Each structure stands twice: as C-alpha cells, then as structure tokens.
Amino acid sequence: MTAESGLGAVEWGLGTVESGLGSAVLVVGGANVDLKARSAAPLVPETSNPGSTVLSPGGVGRNIAEVAARLGARVSLVSIVGADALGDDLLGTTAEAGVDIALVQRTATATGTYTALLDATGDLVAAVADMAAIEQLDPAPVAAVIAHAEPGTIVVLDGNLLPDALAHLLAAAGSGLRVVLDPVSVPKAVRLLPALAGPPTAGEPVRDASPGSVSPAVARSAGPAWAGLFLLTPNRDELAALTGLAVDTDDALIAAAESLRERGITWVWVRLGAAGSVMVGPDGATVLPAYSVDVVDVTGAGDAMLGAFCQALASGASVEEAARIGQAAAALTVASPDTVRTDLTPALISTLMKETTDAAAH
C-alpha cells in the first residue's frame, strides 16, 4: 500500500470552480427530509433520552447534488418526491442551492424521510430510512437524458435505486460518460448486486444470502454493467458485501477492491470514516488520511465527500486530487451540525488543506 499524506495543498482552479464551468454533473438518487435526534447525554437504551431534534433537507443523491452545486458545478438532480408539502419545501430548498430540479418526478407516495439517532458525541447510533418514493422513479425518461448527455458528464447513481432501474440507467450510459455508483449501505449493496453482476459461474452453487452478506458466487461473477463504472465508493462493510471477500486488513481490503477493478471498474474509493480512505486505481492504492477536526455530527460526511469530488473532477482535477478535496469537504461537514454546510466553499476547503499542510511542515 502506498501511503501519501493527502495533505498537500491542491489548487484545483478556483476560478473555474467559482464560475461553474467544466463538465456537468447529473445525480440520480434519493431526495428526502432528514430528522436528526441527538441525545444531550450518553445514550441510555430502551428509555426516553433528553436531547434535540432538527428537520432538514436530505437524501444521498440530493445531498451530493447540493454540495457539488454549492461548490460551483453545473448540477441536475433526478429524483422523485411526494406531491405533498414536504416535497414542495424540499424542491424549493434544493433549487435555491443552485441545483436544476427540472428532472425531478412527483408521486402520490409520501416524500421520503430519514430518521437518524445520534449519541451525545454526534456519532450515528441507528437510523431508519423510508425510501418508498424512490421506488416509484420511472427510469425510462432518465435513461433518455443519460443517453444524450454531453461527453465527460459525471453521472452519479445512488444505491437507493431499485436494481431494475439501476440496470436500465447503466445500459443507457455510453463510454464517454463517467459513471459513479455510491452503494449507500450494506443492504442496498447486496440488493444491487444482481443489476451489476452476471449469472454465477457454471457449477458454482449459490447459497441464500443472509442480511448483510452475499453469495460469493454472485459477488465474484462478472457482468457487463461492472465495466460501465468509472468509480465505485463503498465503505469497508459494503466492499465486503459486494465482493464476498475478507476486508479486515489493509492488504485484504486492497485485494477486494482490486477484484472489483478486474471486472472493469476503473477506480474503487474505499471510505473508512475517521481513518480516511483508500483510492484504488490503475496505478495501485493510495492512502488518504482523514483531516483532523472536532466532530460535531457525522451525518452527511460521505455525501459531502462525493459531491466535492464530483465538482473538482468536473473542473479538471485528477481523481486523486479530487479525492483529497472530497475528504476535506467531509471533514468540514462533520465539524458542523448541518448535513450539508451552507457555507461550504472552495476557499473554505482550500484553507483547511493549506492549514493542515502548514501544520504538518512544522
């Protein structure tokens, strides 16, 4: 494993970022309302805990889109929300952040919700996601948009999509597009495997997959959809679910990521929370340590990381430069009580990166 500090100051063309030029970003995924409940003291299970609650816009796809737009990217969101007051408010807030919402569909199903329980330190204890609305998304018009997207467009797909919808959209993506898939969670990663992998190898049995696990035969099978992915962004547990391999050591983790690259994925970005991340690509593995910040709330860190990555990549940064920028955005997000920081700017990200570099030099 090649370790790099990930702390070098990266000038990624702030003029381009601020002007919103560069490739477009098209995000297809969930849009919902977040309800975060945080305990005021160490959480005591099976009883009522005093604390506070906050209602805010959310959804993996929507969050990624907002972060990229706030940083200057040209972003369109494809999602579906209920024809209700929550949906109206959600779309209004998203549009105000600079995201094009013309492709968002409406449904009679209630707007999705994500309810997160945080302990007194801001760490996630448990969450419940009601994403029934996204299952009503009609992929046909979305596939038509993807099929006619400009070359170089970054297409982000989040794991809340149903497998059939994901397969439809992957089939529509041409070779000139950079398709990014965020598995979202272990159950969603397992659910998406049939859309990504072909049939099991002949003669290899497939056992029933328990929640959070998957048949190694299915995980190892190679299908054409894998080859259409520019970037896959699993965390450690999602990587294990997608490959059926052990990921408990650094070497094992990289081997599992390389097994995905062997199926045609160009880059695998394994996100490790407070430990940073590992980018595995054509030239091997690069370790990107996390930035040191005081954690307030971890919600939205992964979305900020990917949104900032997409904006930087669209503006001409290399994959590894964009990953460092994404990691800085994630650090700034966990240091804030907001799922999406409304004050997140290229200048703020550059300042954190420069301060960290200066501190490391002394």
- The total count of strands amounts to 15
Strand order of the largest sheet: 1-15-14-13-12-11-10-2-5
| Amount of beta strand | 15-25%
Low-confidence stretches: 1-21, 198-222
Helix proportion: 25-40%
CATH class (first level) name: Alpha Beta
Spell out the CATH superfamily.
Ribokinase
Separation of termini? 26 Å
> Which descriptor suits the 3D outline?
globular
Task: Please tell me the overall pLDDT.
Answer: 85
Query: How do the helices and strands follow one another from N- to C-terminus?
Result: EHEEEHEEHEEEHEHEHHEHHEEEHHH
Q: Give the helix/strand class.
A: alpha/beta
CATH topology: UDP-N-acetylmuramoyl-L-alanine:D-glutamate ligase
Radius of gyration, CA atoms, in whole angstroms = 19 Å
Describe this structure as you would to a colleague.
36% of the residues lie in helices and 20% in strands. It is globular, with a radius of gyration of 19 Å. It is of the alpha/beta class and 362 residues long. The two termini are 26 Å apart. Residues 1-21 and 198-222 have low confidence and may be disordered. The chain has a single domain, classed as Ribokinase (UDP-N-acetylmuramoyl-L-alanine:D-glutamate ligase, 3-Layer(aba) Sandwich), CATH 3.40.1190.
